[in-house]
Design goal:
- The protein is mainly α.
- The chain has 13 helices and 3 strands, in the order αααααβαααααββααα.
- It has one domain.
- A 3-stranded mixed sheet has the order 1-3-2.
- The two termini are 13 Å apart.
- GO terms for molecular function: endopeptidase activity.
């Protein structure tokens, strides 16, 4: 039902291309405050405007950088709402779930289970190699990070989920009229969006297995659960707990986290471990809790195009 809510005769694929451009443009507009701040700082310090993103992200104090960068996702989310409502004439709920309303218990459960796993995993690594981590905790900067992070990081992760597991997944469903193509395409695009991350440069392209695998996992739980709530909770926990718990000099953002990872990054089995072991375990837990059945149909089945009257009914309820 989730994908079918966006599949209707008037939802041509070219509309999703236009909508994507609009959302990207909104995101660029949201980057103006950060760019203006960097320009002003460069002018004040009599230095050239940084052409390297990694350098630009280290110009300001970490909390200020996080705040300025996260603003772009607020604009992008507004762009998603505008496109869904006025270009596709759908409700935001119709690209969120097939349920009558958002199930916040699902969001909370997914958030908590991945938060607990992330914290336990970190401390396992910490006690194995404590020399690779240093205490980075400073009370006031950390409390500011908590305030900024708990407000803006869920907006960032939700924006990404609405783009990939909601908007684009329904868009590709309109194009292909099946479920496997939207699942695979959104997973590949989601993973490819991370290719410029400094982690890729440090660890090599093997880490793309993790990024694409994570996209695939999020797509699977969205299709099996007929909604994005589990993906929303997982993604928010992954980024928020990561920002609060540990930072490093080679990650995308440096934060006032509790610990700092001083190790030299390398990609080994730990990169593939979540994809081949942890994610299947989570799929098993979710499937038992929410009674998932008919996996083949939900992940690879065909989609019947709804007539206009049925589509309007789905979007109004």
């Amino acid at each position: 039902m989730f994908l079918e809510q966006g599949v209707k005769p008037e939802n041509k694929f070219w509309k999703y291309l236009i909508g994507s451009v609009f959302i990207i443009t909104a995101s660029f507009i949201g980057q103006i405050p950060f760019s203006a701040a960097v320009l002003l700082k460069s002018f004040k310090d009599k230095k050239g405007f940084p052409t390297n993103e990694d350098v630009a992200l280290k110009i300001f104090e970490p909390n200020l950088t996080l705040f300025l960068v996260m603003i772009s996702f607020v604009f992008a989310f507004a762009g998603i709402y505008f496109v869904v409502k006025y270009l596709h004439h759908q409700t935001l709920l119709s690209v969120t779930a097939s349920r009558p309303k958002v199930d916040w218990k699902r969001v909370t459960f997914s958030f908590l289970i991945w938060s607990v796993f992330s914290i336990i995993s970190f401390f396992v690594l910490y006690f194995q190699s404590p020399e690779e981590f240093v205490w980075n905790f400073k009370l006031i900067p950390f409390l500011i990070l908590v305030l900024i992070g708990t407000i803006l990081i869920p907006i960032q992760t939700s924006t990404e989920e609405y783009v990939f597991r909601g908007y684009l997944m329904q868009g590709f469903a309109n194009l292909a009229h099946n479920k496997w193509f939207p699942l695979m395409m959104t997973s590949l695009i989601f993973g490819s969006m991370h290719i410029l991350n400094p982690e890729v440069e440090k660890m090599g392209y093997i880490i793309m297995v993790y990024y694409i695998g994570t996209g695939l996992f999020l797509g699977i739980i969205t299709l099996m659960d007929d909604g994005m709530e589990l993906a929303l909770g997982f993604h928010a926990a992954n980024n928020l707990i990561g920002a609060l718990l540990v930072t490093s000099d080679w990650s995308v953002f440096q934060t006032h986290s509790i610990f700092k990872d001083m190790s030299e990054p390398s990609a080994g089995f730990d990169v593939i471990l979540p994809v081949v072991i942890v994610y299947p375990i989570l799929l098993f837990i979710f499937s038992k809790k929410y009674n998932w059945t008919n996996w083949k149909e939900k992940l690879t089945g065909t989609i019947e195009e709804k007539n206009k009257e049925t589509a309007e009914f789905l979007n109004l309820n």
